[in-house]
Each structure stands twice: as C-alpha cells, then as structure tokens.
Amino acid sequence: MLVEGPARSPRVIDRRAIELSDAHVPTSRQPYHAVRDARPGQAAKLERRLRGLVERVTKRSLGALLDEYRRQGRPVRQVALVVGSLIDPARIGNDHIRAHALEGQLFRTALEGAARAARLRCTTLVERSLYAVTDLGGACGGPWRADEKAATLAAWLALRVS
Terminus of the chain with fewer CB atoms < 10 Å: N or C? Predict the structure, then answer.
C-alpha cells in the first residue's frame, strides 16, 4: 500500500504486491520446505542458495517499485511491514510448522534488509496487534481484504511516526 497525506486523513494511492521469490525457481516460494526435504548433506547449501535468491529478488522488486514511485513524484519515506508472527522458529517443535515460521522470518528479514538498502526506515508490526481499518482504501475499489487493511494501517502508523 502506498499511503500519503496528513496523518489525520491519509489516502491510499496504490496497492500492489512485490515479488519475494523467483517464479523460475519454484522452491524459492517455500524455501524451508525444500530444505527440509533435501538429501542429507545438501540442506545447508540449498538453504544458502535459496536465502540469497529470496534476498536478491526482494531487493530488486522493492527497488523497482520505489523507483517507479519516485518517477511519479511520490518518493517513499519509510516502509511498514505487517507480519503474522515474530516467534522464534527454533521454539517450534513440528518440522512442517517450523518451515513455515522460517519462511516468514526469511521474507520479513529480506524485506527489512531491502528497505535498509534503500535507506528507508522500516517498521514491523504483528497483524493481531492492529485494529480494524474502516474505509481508508475505498478509493482503490474492489474487495478490501484483511491483509490490505493491515498494510494500510501499518503505513498510516508509520506516517504518524515520521
């Protein structure tokens, strides 16, 4: 979500998703599932390769979006991320659930790193800590999904902090 305007009356200007994985490398969508299923002795090498790929794709995707906004005369001042959890994956006993937690952690840290590389402050908020957002995104049309409401609220809160 791109939000602008005064903190008391923000407007959603744009909404879109950025790529965090490489469409040509299907295992990059769920890298820790691939690592979990790797042959013994191959897991560490596969993890390094997929982590690096996710980090590069995320940095490139965020950079392209920021460049586009800059060309439109809408330079971004900061980034707000909404995540499902900040739990330490090592605390999760179930291998499959731990893989999901590791993926969430990887995508979050890749986005945080990409924001830092772009010299932007990055705020990370846990979704369940956010409150319902009314109709801030009404101008965007279409269904107003929960993840979009959360992203909008996070952007609004980031505007208030700046």
Answer: C
